[in-house]
Amino acid sequence: MKRARQQGGSAAEVEAAFYDALNRADVEALMALWADDDEIFCIHPGGPRLHGHAAIQASWEAILEQGGLQIRPSMLHQAHNLMSAVHTVIEGVTSASAEPAHLVATNAYMKTPQGWRMVLHHVSVAPGPVPSEPHLPTSLH
Predict the structure, then answer these.
(1) Which of 12, 32, 57, 134 is the most buried (most CB within 10 A)?
(2) Could you say which DSSP state residue 14 is in?
(3) How far apart are CA 84 and CA 7, in angstroms?
(4) What is the DSSP letter of 129?
(5) Cα-to-chain-centroid distance, residue 115
(6) 88 Cβ contact list (under 8 Å, min separation 6)
(7) Average pLDDT of span 114-121
(8) Could you tell me how many helices (H) and strands (E) the chain has, helices first?
């Protein structure tokens, strides 16, 4: 059993391990961070909703076959309770073959018997330049 599956950790530690695995193009380590439950989802920018381990793993294998993505998450906002956590981040992406870009990601985690595990990764291309400070609404509407 992989080390990530043996330790509990926090949602923040799972998230740090997730981005580390992406940057290293380590699909095995990346998938070890997902919940064992088949009710897990991943949506890549412009892509369909992927459901379950097999579909999610196949997508990451295709994305990472050329190497790591060099994604740096920043501007974390988080909501937690005893059993779940939702993080939104700005993903700064750099690669040798493309202009730097930024994406908006939502990562959801659940506390399982094995510790915190990812259950959702949803990423969208963000319009405009990378924001220098997070914009938080002051009202609901």
Answers:
(1) 32
(2) H
(3) 17
(4) S
(5) 17
(6) 76, 77, 78, 104, 105, 106, 107
(7) 96
(8) 4, 6
Pair 115, 8: CB distance under 8 Å:
yes
Q: Using alpha carbons, select from 81, 125, 133 the residue that is nearest to residue 102.
A: 125
SS3 (DSSP) at 114: coil
Long-range contacts, 41-44 (Cβ 8 Å, 24+): 41/119, 41/120, 41/121, 41/122, 42/120, 42/121, 42/122, 43/121, 43/122, 43/123, 44/123
- Give CA–CA dist 104/70, Å, rounded: 15
Asked whether the predicted pLDDT for residue 129 surpasses 70, the reply is no
Q: How many of the other CB atoms lie within 10 Å of CB of 3?
A: 9
- In this predicted model, what pLDDT tens digit does every residue of 48-106 receive, in sequence order? 999 999 999 999 999 999 888 888 888 888 999 999 999 999 888 766 555 667 899 99
Q: How many CB atoms lie within 10 A of CB 119?
A: 20
Rounded to an integer, what distance in angstroms lies between the CA atom of residue 140 and that of residue 132?
23
CB 37 within 8 A of CB 53: no
Confidence at residue 130, expressed as pLDDT on a 0 to 100 scale = 65
